[in-house]
Specification:
The chain is an alpha/beta fold. The chain has 2 domains: 200 residues, 2-enoyl-CoA Hydratase, Chain A, domain 1; 57 residues, Lyase 2-enoyl-coa Hydratase, Chain  A, domain 2 (Orthogonal Bundle). The chain has 10 helices and 10 strands. The strands form 2 sheets. A 7-stranded mixed β-sheet has the order 1-2-3-4-5-7-10, with helices on both faces. Strands 6-8-9 form a 3-stranded mixed β-sheet. Helix 1 packs parallel to helix 3 and helix 8 packs antiparallel against helix 9.
Length: 262
Amino acid sequence: MTKQQTIITDITDNIGSITLNRPEKHNAFNEVMIEELTESFTEMGNNDNIRVIIVRGNGKSFCAGGDLNWMRKTADYSFDENFQDAMKLGKLLKTINICPKPTIAEIYGNVFGGGIGICASCDIAIADKNAVFCLSEVRIGLIPSIIAPYVIAAIGERQAKRYFLTAERFNGEIAKNIGLVHEALDVSKIKNCLENIVNAILQGAPLAQKMGKELIKNVSKCDIDDKIVEYTSKKIAEARASKTGKEGLNAFLTKTEPSWRK
């Protein structure tokens, strides 16, 4: 287990864990946390010994958005300084979104602003049904701009219009209903749900999961035309011809276990 300034990282049994560790600030992020999270997701994503990455918060909240002192400092920035600062958060969310490993957000407590961006950037999100979500930016004259691509992809344009404009608070059950999280559970059931999802991921082939994430990114919202038919045909041909594909198919036909499940 490695403790950095704002996060704690750990690798156990092929599972990477990243814990936001500013509990006294409800894990609100600043420039240091953004940098440390970006580095950790990049390193774990490139680590062949890691099969899945789980991100969670230490203390009562998952992430309360931007740290007030950090936001106060940016209030005096020029446009160019604000742009460069915003690009760092943009890089973090993109890094999470395109991470080659499956990513899971385990959510308790408050999830505000950029915290929702982290949630939406992960492949899978599990929440306490009583967690409190809020896209609060308009209350202080801002917009949820950097997180918008990921949040809208999760909840859709119609729901985004409501919650971007009203900054209403909503609980984990509503978050599930609108697509922001996959499960909203009693706290006592979250660990078991997380374990089941991780075990399911470990049954799959790492290369196939990586290719599957790339496939989703490249075909999402595309017109089903000759170009997309050709692309998807090429991708399955690549999968079938790969060492992983050959091994998996042979294991299925011979009723044996492939190497990634041994």
